[in-house]
Design the sequence.
């Protein structure tokens, strides 16, 4: 089954304790992306990757790191989490044709609810 | 700043009604996505379009590039259509793969 898998689904942790949220897709997609969703602000893009070793900032990258060492995986790293990073996080992937062609529709993971105390 | 605005923010309708949700954006784009977020939180991509019109079942999405506006229509609405509908745009320059989202329209269909 084609899917985007995020882990963990829920996490409660404390300020300053490094954490990683994993994202894996089995569709051989080039494009992967991380979003956070907050009440009243909607979805905002954190980082995206157009292929292995190619990553770029979205609208809200501060406090986050990503890496793309393999095509299927795109982990989100919070080196020193703070309470303002409490949010619902989504990973997504899609085919990517590049150039003037728009991305294909995105496939979303089920979300990770992160609470930082 | 490039912006995406959706209207209405909330919409309640009776089963069977024709629904329209609007999305406007501030500058040229290369693609627009319509997403559906279920009450349980999962997100599904409904449409991606850069011009014209697309149809899937009872859902129709249109985009007017000149007017910088897109609409999502639902015909013969049903309670299972109750969800948050979100538009997202990829801005005009290719090589720029960022997506910016509207804040969503919460649709409730009453039986």
Sequence:
């Amino acid at each position: 089954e084609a899917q985007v898998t995020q882990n963990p689904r829920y996490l409660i942790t404390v300020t300053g304790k490094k954490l990683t949220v994993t994202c894996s897709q089995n569709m051989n997609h080039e494009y992967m992306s991380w979003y956070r969703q907050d009440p009243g602000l909607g979805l905002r893009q954190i980082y995206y990757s157009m292929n292995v070793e190619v990553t770029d900032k979205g609208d809200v990258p501060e406090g986050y790191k990503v890496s793309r060492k393999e095509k299927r995986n795109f982990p989100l790293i919070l080196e020193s989490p703070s309470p303002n990073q409490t949010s619902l996080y989504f990973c997504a992937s899609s085919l990517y044709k590049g150039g003037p062609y728009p991305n294909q529709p995105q496939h979303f993971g089920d979300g990770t609810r992160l609470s930082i105390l | 700043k490039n912006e995406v605005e959706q209207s209405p923010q909330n919409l309640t309708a009776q089963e069977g009604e024709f629904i329209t949700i609007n999305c406007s954006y501030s500058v040229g784009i290369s693609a627009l996505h319509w997403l559906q977020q279920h009450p349980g939180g999962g997100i599904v991509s409904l449409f991606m379009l850069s011009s014209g019109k697309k149809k899937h079942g009872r859902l129709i999405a249109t985009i007017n590039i000149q007017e910088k506006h897109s609409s999502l229509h639902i015909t013969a609405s049903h309670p299972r259509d109750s969800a948050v509908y979100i538009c997202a745009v990829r801005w005009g320059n290719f090589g720029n793969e960022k997506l910016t989202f509207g804040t969503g329209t919460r649709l409730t269909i009453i039986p």
